[in-house]
Specification:
By secondary structure, the protein is mostly beta strands. It is built from no helices and eleven strands. A hairpin with a 4-residue loop joins strand 7 and strand 8.
Amino acid sequence: QLQLVESGGDLVQPEGSLRLSCAAAGRISTDGSMAWFRQASGKEREFVAIISNGGTRTLYADSVKGRFTISRDNPRNTVDLQMNSLKPEDTAVYYCAASQIWTTGARAFDSWGRGTQVIVSS
């Protein structure tokens, strides 16, 4: 399993931007993927975005498409989530996760970070 540590969460005003980063320590398989999930208070954890370990394939939840961008820097073992045009409904704890396959299902991710809090409010 990988050790994943998220950073970058903060309080931001609506329509603002924020960049989250996930640092991975450990062996990353050439296959598989890394993703961001989020969990708002009182709600289930939901998929946000995913990127293949090769970095050539990405997928986004409909709710963030066009506003969020996932990227990775393989030499540095980091995966970032650039979030623009933030809305109050984006408020949640954001988690980084790693899977050995391409999937948006949380159960298939065997490494998780502890999360970073994002609050979108005026």
